[in-house]
Design goal:
globular, 141 residues, mainly alpha
């Protein structure tokens, strides 16, 4: 009889998991824009913003590893919504930043109410996946 020892990930391992999830979201988000013409219309129109919000969530989990999920969810919502509402501000200096590739990816180009829904779905999806991960590892202690 062999015993399989499952241990709860250390802080360092959890950080690694969250940074990998963040990078994976970056790759998937960029890919969703690059191959949008190959995707179903609904996915092509919504996936990028949803994945961007998931990336924000996992990035904050990486930074705030010792905070609870609720705190990370709230901060992620605040960050994403602030970025979206900042798009209502159309000064020439910030629009120049938005015209760059990185500036456009981070700050967006124009306010869309639907983006708030996409961000919400992305953050909630990421939090659910995170919670499932945590429950799986705590039940196998």
């Amino acid at each position: 009889m062999t015993l399989v020892k499952t241990t709860y990930p250390t802080l360092k391992n959890k950080r690694l998991i969250y940074i990998v999830a963040t990078i994976l979201c970056m790759i998937l988000g960029l890919a969703s824009r690059k191959i949008a013409h190959l995707l179903p219309l609904f996915v092509a129109e919504n996936a990028g913003d949803m994945i961007w919000a998931m990336m924000i969530y996992f990035g904050f989990r990486f930074l705030l590893i010792q905070k609870n999920l609720f705190t990370t969810v709230v901060i992620s919502f605040l960050f994403c919504f602030c970025i979206e509402f900042s798009q209502l501000y159309q000064a020439s200096w910030i629009n120049q930043i938005r015209r760059t590739v990185v500036g456009g990816l981070i700050l967006g180009k124009g306010f869309l109410t639907i983006d708030l829904i996409r961000y919400s779905v992305g953050i909630i999806t990421a939090a659910i996946l995170d919670r499932i991960y945590i429950l799986y590892h705590t039940s196998n202690r």
